[in-house]
Amino acid sequence: MKVAVLDIKGKETGREVELSDAVFAIEPNNHAVYLDVKQYLAHQRQGTHKSKERAEIAGSTRKIKKQKGTGTARAGSIKSPVFRGGGRIFGPRPKDYKQKLNKNLKRLARKSAFSIKAKDSAIVVVEDFNFEAPKTKEFVNVLKSLGLEGKKSLIVLGDRNNNVYLSSRNLKGSEVITSSELSTYKILNAGSVVLLEGALEGIETNLTNK
């Protein structure tokens, strides 16, 4: 599929690029997308949750009242979960939430995500650009020109560019990443995906090579 290349002012440059059908025009595999997004979200969890159980509470272990004759239930240590300040029954413990997926499935998921965006006409190709210094105002002007101001957008660079990255860091709805940092979740979470020309070769190479 052919897509017109825009400049940072949102105007057509008169050039077109050919997007690989093997990446941007496949039949989306929804289950692969589901598994990859599920893995991404699971990996965002730290798994450091912890509460103290009965054996970990600091307190006396003496029997707090006699076994019989009180008219109430039997009670042993004050650290019992039935008392205020006692341990928690089956409380959360540290856990590793990482999940494993094979590379081919992850590639299929990302190609499916790109194909979904391409079908919705939510992929924009822009010629490579740079700023002389980090300036949020300049980055906002680029978003305005592309009609993306105030919208969720994902800008994909070919290589790390600190000036562009730092210019976007204060903007809540826009994210700048390199082609090697792409994930299915980030592609689908963005309203529009802006691909710089320099990123296209890396994307197609990473997603088609086995």
Structure characterization notes:
Helix 5 links the parallel strand 4 (153-157) and strand 5. The radius of gyration is 27 Å and the shape is elongated. It has helices at 21-24, 30-43, 103-119, 136-145, 162-168, 184-189, 197-208; strands at 2-6, 12-18, 123-126, 153-157, 174-178, 192-196. With 210 residues, it is an alpha/beta fold. The longest helix has 17 residues, at 103-119. The protein is built from seven helices and six strands. A six-stranded mixed beta sheet has the order 2-1-3-6-4-5. Helix 4 (136-145) crosses helix 5 (162-168). The relative contact order is 0.18. The model has no long low-confidence stretch (mean pLDDT 93). It has two domains: 2-45 and 97-208, Ribosomal Protein L4, Chain: A, CATH 3.40.1370; 48-96, no CATH class. The two termini are 22 Å apart. InterPro entries: Ribosomal_uL4 (IPR002136), Ribosomal_uL4-like (IPR013005), Ribosomal_uL4_dom_sf (IPR023574). Keywords: Ribonucleoprotein, Ribosomal protein, RNA-binding, rRNA-binding. This is Large ribosomal subunit protein uL4. GO terms for molecular function: rRNA binding; structural constituent of ribosome. One of its GO terms (biological process) is translation.
